[in-house]
Design brief:
By secondary structure, the protein is an alpha/beta fold. It is 33% helix and 25% strand.
């Protein structure tokens, strides 16, 4: 089974600050770093470092050469990425006390056309995976087209936007959500994670739900199974790519026919390593590092 990731490619500017900036406030950053990022790029890197084969589709601007170089070094297939005449997507990320606040500009990610989607989907078919995030144009169109081809549609419901409620989410086979995204999709304001998951399951009973909840770990719900795995106890430096690391690792493990429980455990370990490092894609661990950590904890 092949994995196609129709996903964002961003240039991230990451600022280490004492606190998140407030309205009408100017603050000084302690550090500033520029990293390759975007939820799409991060998840392709995570899949590749977990040993999965991934084809990335999307768009970069004239300034996106380094983004493509990063993916090329990870052996990600890039023939489905189009270069535009504009600028690549970008993000401004504040990091304070291990938490982050992010502003994303779509750039070339929002210039993806129906022709791009059709071309990307053409080599794939029944049983292959399509991974989507909500940082590109034509997510709704891609969901429909992939579902019609019999692909397994995986949706990382981030960032939350009002137009998501108009997507054909009943066609999604696997959801990756955090508690905020799960609440939005389930249209509930409960504080109990299991209730949130139950409400989301009631709304999308045929889908697999994978809900990450920070220090509380991950909840998994399908038509027949339920799991809750606690997070690894680690020192948190930067949570920027934790969810992307988890999702990429989980999908790679599932595509290699690992059990759900083993995939969840491996993805949890990978995310635990990622939050101990600064940056987005650069923080994503390699399979060997994850395997070593898991052996130490046995």
């Amino acid at each position: 089974m092949k994995i196609l990731n129709l996903g964002s490619l961003n240039i991230d500017k990451v600022y280490q600050v004492n606190h998140f900036v407030k309205g009408q406030e100017t603050i000084s950053a302690e550090e500033c770093h520029v990293y390759p990022g975007g939820k799409g790029l991060n998840q392709s890197v995570a899949i590749a470092r977990a040993g999965g084969e991934v084809f990335h589709a999307g768009a970069v601007g004239s300034d996106g050469g380094e983004l493509l170089s990063v993916l090329e070094k990870e052996n990600v297939h890039l023939e489905l990425v189009r270069r535009t005449g504009g600028v690549s997507g970008s993000a401004v990320i504040q990091v304070a006390g291990g938490e982050n606040a992010i502003i994303v500009y779509g750039g070339a990610n929002k210039e993806i056309t129906r022709e791009d989607v059709d071309r990307a989907l053409e080599p794939f078919g029944k049983g292959d995976y399509l991974l989507l995030q909500n940082e590109t144009s034509l997510v709704s169109y891609a969901i429909r087209k992939a579902s019609e081809k019999g692909m397994t549609v995986v949706f990382n419901a981030s960032p939350v936007t009002e137009d998501m409620q108009g997507y054909p989410l009943e066609m999604v086979d696997i959801f990756f959500v955090n508690e905020i995204e799960a609440k939005y999709l389930a249209e509930c304001d409960e504080g109990d994670y299991q209730i949130i998951l139950e409400r989301l399951h009631q709304k999308y009973p045929a889908a697999i739900l994978v809900m990450t909840v920070g220090e509380e770990g991950v909840y998994y719900q399908s038509e027949s199974d339920f799991f809750h795995l606690p997070a690894n106890q680690v020192s948190v430096v930067d949570t920027t790519a934790a969810g992307d690391t988890f999702g990429g690792y989980y999908l790679a493990c599932i595509s290699k026919s690992m059990t759900v429980k083993a995939a969840l455990e491996t993805a949890t370990a990978a995310a635990g390593l990622a939050v101990g490092r600064n940056g987005a894609s650069v923080s994503i661990p390699y399979w060997e590092d994850v395997e070593s950590m898991m052996k130490r904890e046995e």
